[in-house]
Sequence to fold (300 residues):
Amino acid sequence: MDPGLGSPVPGRPLAPPAAAERELLAPRRRVRFAHASAGDVFAAGRVAAPQPLDREWAWGGSTGRGVRVCVIDSGVDPAHPAIGALAARYAAEPGSSAPDAAWDLVPDSLGDVAGHGTACAGIIKSLAPACELTSVRILGAKLRGSGEALTRALEWAVSERFALVNVSLSTRREQHKERLHDLADEAYFAGVTLVSAAHNSPVDSYPWRFPSVLSVGAHAVPDPEYLEANPAPPVDLFARGVDVEAPWTGGGTRRLSGNSFAAPHVTGLCARILARHPQFATAELRHVLTATADNLGRPG
Fold:
């Protein structure tokens, strides 16, 4: 399972696994990982909006209060000052030593074992500071995990009817594709919005490839609210994902790059929208984010 890629490991310099995925961090940097913004314009004629939508109506003044968000990742550091109190913390663990044993969710006593989840949670909180965060740890210290753990965590999150689920990771294993597809559809119809980071490499992985998911790639604009709609799916949206300063375990911060860190920007904005428009589901969120995107062309 791949954690949204471009994701750092504690004690090592930030580096993606292959030269083709490197991002240049010099001024006027050019992002080289896959599923990054090319700066294309999204045609206004593709958006059904008889009257223009604006961000003041969509999320102006909102802090995400009361919106329940689940972060499926490497855990979250509950002591980090940028995070604040968590609603709950769980970890996915195998139920027995049998290879096909079911995974259980148990109380998490470790917190974040890699830093990745704390970074994602901190980005969400920076945009929606009053949302209610729950952490489900499925990744280990080296950002490794299993498709079974991801599936179990998503099953639980959907059954708990979280408004938003941030998944800054994916699996390339085809044996999990069908079940994850069914879960993504189940979430969509249940009013649970899955926000998933696209892979940094040009490969198929899941769940971000499913159309019932809000899939996110990266752009290099430093504004955390700058958003682009993608005129050429499967990626839906581009959000800030290059040289992002985010919380890290131990109370500090790190500069991070990757689609992993673009997805929680979208999750945070969705939390703000839902606090003002609580009846919205995935379809409405996708429409509002597209209609208020910064790269939307002029009508006609």
